[in-house]
């Protein structure tokens, strides 16, 4: 039997996949650059002394952003390690060395290199301070134009990531042990909490979308579902173990979306690729159809990425803004109203935490299902 | 907006962490959990199927019992009926044979009676003849003086005797 066509097809598929993969990375910066035009005013740091008006936008964005230290309460912080890959190799020091400065005014010198931190980003410091005392060169939009070292710090988000992984491992290895301990018996404790959700993922997400080949993708779907859900929930806790906005971080959602993208592309069968490159339309329609279909390969994971990021971030901003109403109106009497609303939104966020995990997982299953679907 | 720019460090950490998490969970959690759930579902299905089969077997057995009962009843009726006809026929036969036997006996008795009657008559005839001979002898002895006439008379007399 001649199988060369299969081999040839696989090679072609790999070439296509890698081309598309590279194209994805070359396209993204341009796409994000456009969003950059919707820049919020961040010039409040220009006049730090003139603290007249409470800037709700800046406050909210600061709280949902990643951070090099973990705020506990008041002036208490957990200082997290800073790890930089600089021109002169790896450099690491405690973020306490910045003295909780976030405006580029405190310079840390290590290995003969000088660093400043502004808006939780670390830059190579300028030789001299500018008129605001910042060791940075600012452009007209008040963005630092200094070079940046590669920042591999254990930030708040990385800590939460590790924490969530530990929680997930503890919970689900415990659940798995429950199955080993009670073989063939009804579930108990944590096991009976998680089993309906695992079955939900299997029976309502994987099976309808993936058909009989669902078992191969169950580990991915379950991991992605519980990772997103647990982190969404952790993000809703306002104090220490939670508080980070991990699933509302574009880097995290991007990696999850890329995972779905890779699974879709690497598992796509010939019908899937035929549908993209040779759809059942008259040949002259290919001029329109092929680019649209090719574009669709990327829009699906990008939509996944943006959807999760935007939903979680929006929820955080909403809750923060409602709490901030007290400071905006500068009146304690507004507190009951803002707390009532914050509780209401918080309850909705609990729902959203689950729904977004569900949507991400079901859409991933749907996209993979479309790629592996067998015609005739 | 800065929010939309993925930080390189977090991208690296997230990639490694997520892959590691997926590997660990797949190996130590999802595989045993899904296998256990599947196994349990299969055993439940099996048990239900078995129960269903047992139920079917039960109904089948009940139906069979019913059938057996019915046929047994029918057989009993049949046997009873047969016994009744047999009895009737035996009785009839007995009656019949008794009748014929009786008739035969009567016939035989009749013949016997006839024979006896004939024998008695023969006896009677011979007795009558001897008696008459005796009488005749005595008469003749008395009247033998006239032998020739006497003998004629006897012969005539004897001719007149009609034996019936």
Characteristic terms for this protein:
heterodimer; A: 376 residues; mainly alpha; three-stranded antiparallel sheet; 8 strands; 57% helix; globular; disordered N terminus; B: 164 residues; 2 helices; 91% helix; 0% strand; rod-shaped
Task: Determine the number of helices of chain A (DSSP H or I, runs of at least 4 residues).
Answer: 9
Task: Report strand % of chain A.
Answer: 5-15%
- Give Rg of chain B in angstroms: 63 Å
> What structural category do the secondary elements of chain B indicate?
mainly alpha
Shape descriptor of chain B reads rod-shaped
Number of strands of chain A: 8
* Strand-pairing-aware structural class of chain A: mainly alpha
Strand order of the largest sheet of chain A: 4-3-8
Helix content of chain B: over 70%
Compressed to H and E, one letter per element, the order of chain B equals HH
Biggest interface goes to: A-B, 52 and 35 residues
> In whole angstroms, how far apart are the ends of chain B?
169 Å
Arithmetic mean of pLDDT of chain A: 83
Largest sheet of chain B: none
Kindly provide the radius of gyration of chain A, computed on alpha-carbon positions and rounded to a whole number of angstroms: 25 Å
Mean pLDDT of chain B: 89
Strand content of chain B: under 5%
Helix fraction of chain A, binned, reads 55-70%
How is this fold's topology laid out?
The complex is a heterodimer of chains A (376) and B (164).
Chain A: H1 4-35, H2 56-64, E1 69-73, E2 76-79, E3 81-86, E4 89-94, E5 108-110, E6 113-118, E7 121-124, E8 150-151, H3 156-181, H4 190-210, H5 218-236, H6 250-267, H7 270-277, H8 286-329, H9 335-372
Antiparallel strand pairs in A: 1-2, 3-4, 3-8, 5-6, 6-7
Helix pairs in contact in A: 2-8, 3-4, 3-5, 4-5, 4-9, 5-9, 6-8, 6-9, 8-9
Chain B: H1 8-143, H2 147-160
């Amino acid at each position: 039997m001649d199988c060369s066509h299969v081999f040839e097809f696989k090679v072609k598929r790999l070439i296509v996949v890698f081309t598309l993969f590279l194209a994805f990375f070359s396209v993204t910066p341009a796409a994000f650059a456009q969003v950059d035009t919707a820049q919020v005013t961040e010039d409040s740091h220009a006049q730090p002394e003139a603290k007249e008006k409470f800037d709700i936008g800046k406050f909210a964005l600061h709280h949902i952003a990643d951070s090099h230290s973990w705020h506990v309460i008041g002036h208490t912080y957990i200082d997290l390690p800073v790890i930089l890959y600089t021109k002169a190799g790896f450099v690491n020091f405690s973020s306490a060395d910045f003295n909780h400065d976030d405006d580029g005014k405190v310079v840390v010198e290590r290995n003969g290199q000088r660093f400043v931190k502004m808006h939780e980003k670390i830059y190579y410091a300028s030789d001299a301070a500018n008129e605001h005392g910042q060791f940075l060169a600012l452009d007209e939009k008040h963005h630092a134009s200094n070079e940046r070292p590669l920042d591999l710090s254990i930030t708040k988000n990385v800590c939460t990531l590790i924490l969530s992984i530990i929680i997930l491992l503890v919970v689900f290895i415990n659940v798995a042990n429950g199955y080993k301990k009670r073989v063939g018996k009804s579930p108990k404790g944590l096991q009976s909490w998680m089993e309906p959700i695992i079955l939900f993922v299997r029976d309502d997400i994987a099976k309808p979308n993936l058909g009989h080949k669902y078992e191969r993708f169950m580990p991915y779907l379950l991991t992605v579902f519980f990772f997103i859900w647990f982190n969404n929930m952790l993000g809703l806790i306002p104090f220490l173990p939670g508080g980070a906005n991990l699933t509302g971080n574009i880097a995290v959602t991007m990696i999850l979306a890329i995972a779905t993208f890779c699974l879709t592309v690497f598992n796509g069968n010939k019908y899937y690729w035929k549908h993209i490159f040779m759809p059942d339309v008259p040949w002259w329609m290919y001029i329109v159809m092929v680019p649209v279909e090719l574009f669709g390969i990327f829009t699906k994971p990008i939509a996944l990425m943006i959807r999760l990021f935007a939903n979680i971030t929006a929820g955080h901003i909403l809750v923060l803004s409602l709490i901030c109403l007290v400071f905006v109106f500068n009146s304690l009497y507004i507190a009951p109203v803002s707390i009532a609303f914050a509780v209401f939104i918080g309850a909705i966020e609990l729902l959203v935490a689950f729904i977004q995990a569900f949507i991400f997982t079901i859409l991933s299953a749907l996209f993979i299902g479309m790629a592996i679907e067998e015609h005739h | 907006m800065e929010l939309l720019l993925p930080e390189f460090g977090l991208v690296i950490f997230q990639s490694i962490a997520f892959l590691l998490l997926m590997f660990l969970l797949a190996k130590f959690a999802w595989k045993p959990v899904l296998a256990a759930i599947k196994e349990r579902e299969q055993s439940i299905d099996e048990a239900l199927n078995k129960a269903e089969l047992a139920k079917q077997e039960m109904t089948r057995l009940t139906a069979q019992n019913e059938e057996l009962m019915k046929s047994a009843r029918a057989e009993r009726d049949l046997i009873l009926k047969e016994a009744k006809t047999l009895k009737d026929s035996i009785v009839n036969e007995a009656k019949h044979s008794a009748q014929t036997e009786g008739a035969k006996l009567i016939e035989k008795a009749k013949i016997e009676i006839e024979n006896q009657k004939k024998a008695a008559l023969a006896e009677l005839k011979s007795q009558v003849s001897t008696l008459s001979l005796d009488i005749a002898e005595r008469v003749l002895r008395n009247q033998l003086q006239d032998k020739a006439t006497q003998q004629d008379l006897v012969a005539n007399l004897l001719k007149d005797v009609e034996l019936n």
